[in-house]
Amino acid sequence: MSPVIDFDPARRTNAQAIADLATLGVLHQDSWMLDATVGPERGFWKQWWPRHLVTNDSDETVTADHHWDARHMPVMDGAFDVVVFDPPYANRGTSRHPMDPRYGLDAGYRTKVDVEALLVEGTVEALRVTTKLALIKCQDACVSGHYAPQTFLVWEAAKAAGARLMGEMYVVGRREQPSGKRQKNIWSACSTLMVFDKGRKR
User: Fold this and answer.
1) N or C: which end of the chain has fewer CB within 10 A?
2) How far apart, in whole angstroms, are the C-alpha atoms of residue 20 and residue 113?
3) What is the CATH number of domain 14-197?
4) What angle separates helix 150-160 from helix 112-128, to the nearest 10 degrees?
């Protein structure tokens, strides 16, 4: 078996990240898993999937088992073994891209504060409803010329909730910037899948 590493240039999809975690034995077929933000593409589950997968998406046009707000889900504490939370974390401003609907970014303008609040509240809720693992997807990036470290915000929220960061897996790929835009800051080429263990103290 080839080693599973955090930065693998060949890991270009969320599905590959999930498959890598399964290869490591972090994810198990018999676990009860919740994808709290499954989306129309079901992108996490194209290479590996558990026997017991519950899907959710706040968008009622998406085919899913439930349509809850992922920040306030009507289930008991520890209802699942593993929870995946992949919200629309990109800070898009007023620019638009043809792939925005695929990533839940077509609902209008959101401030940086809105995006960060969604990440933090969703992370806390994911940890509430899991007994073992929470997989949180986010991305560090520059927003209006200032660095916005989403991974740090998520880590702080998870730590306060009593979870331990097991590691991070990077998914390689970035969107092209609008034509004619001059680069002023370092652009991010990766998004991050953060793996938190609720069962062990930090």
Assistant:
1) N
2) 32
3) 3.40.50.150
4) 40
